[in-house]
Specification:
By secondary structure, the protein is mostly helical. The chain contains 10 helices and 3 strands; from the N terminus they run αααααααβββααα. Strands 1-2-3 form a 3-stranded antiparallel β-sheet, with no helix packed on it. The structure holds zinc ion.
């Protein structure tokens, strides 16, 4: 049993939270018990080195590894001398408040982890925000969702060349007109099924007082820059969401 414990010193060190002093007391009790039985151990040094190498403090581990290298290069060393070196290093690091201080590498990993957590949070917020947007859209125009079963192409949200401003484009079996103040419409520069001349706004009749969620922030999205970001982000995420997101985000105006 004592021999077994001596060969598993590394596990004990982690059990006692890398307290080197406590560790050495434990080792000495084991050795005393072994001697009391008239027994000795010949691989105590190896077992001690194994335990030190498993320690949580990287400065300490590096130091003990150097000691081990010198011993392997035939430098004389007894278990007691080794434990003295370890105890001394432990004491110095403790007194300088350097014991178990995270290494530069640890800190880099911690920083990366926090960036990753932050990005996950933002992605989650983005997805949740989009879901709410879809829901609002359905409440607003429940019957009009049916005809667009395909995802709108990105050119719908881009301003065409000057020469093509008033030219309709065919898509999904319908003619689409670029509707913006430039073409006489009221939309924020997006292809719509209505002619700009027939563009009319929806008054906020179906908005509950005080909420104002649907109209105000959406109008702010204004020029199609903001909407493009959303479209691009959706494509990047590969989220098979409703194809009508563009219109939902453009809300506040009659769209068809
Ligand atoms: Zn319009």
């Amino acid at each position: 049993m004592i021999r077994f414990k001596l060969s598993n010193l590394d596990e004990y060190l982690s059990e006692i939270d890398n307290d080197i002093n406590k560790f050495h007391k434990y080792v000495k009790v084991l050795i005393d018990n072994l001697h009391a039985r008239g027994d000795t151990t010949h691989n105590l040094l190896v077992n001690l080195f194994k335990a030190y190498a498993a320690c949580s403090d990287q400065t300490f581990v590096k130091y003990m590894s150097d000691v081990q290298t010198r011993w392997e290069d035939d430098e004389a060393l007894t278990p007691n001398q080794l434990m003295q070196k370890a105890a001394h290093k432990f004491k110095i690091l403790k007194s300088k408040d350097l014991w178990e201080v995270p290494s530069a590498q640890d800190e880099k990993i911690t920083a990366l982890e926090s960036v990753l957590t932050d990005m996950k949070k933002k992605l989650k917020q983005f997805k949740e925000g989009k879901k709410r947007g879809n829901k609002d859209g359905r409440n607003e125009r429940p019957k009009k969702q049916k005809y667009e079963s395909t995802k709108k192409p990105s050119w719908m949200y881009e301003r065409p060349k000057d020469a093509d401003l008033t030219k309709p484009r065919e898509w999904n079996g319908a003619k689409w007109y670029y509707c913006s103040t430039e073409t006489g419409g009221k939309c924020h520069g997006v292809y719509r099924k209505h002619h700009p001349n027939e563009c009319r706004t929806i008054q906020p009749k179906n908005q509950k007082a005080g909420k104002g969620k649907k109209g105000k922030p959406k109008k702010k999205m204004g020029d199609n820059g903001g909407n493009m970001d959303v479209v691009v982000a959706q494509q990047a995420i590969g989220d098979p969401s409703s194809p009508d997101d563009g219109d939902v985000l453009m809300g506040g105006y009659e769209t068809e």
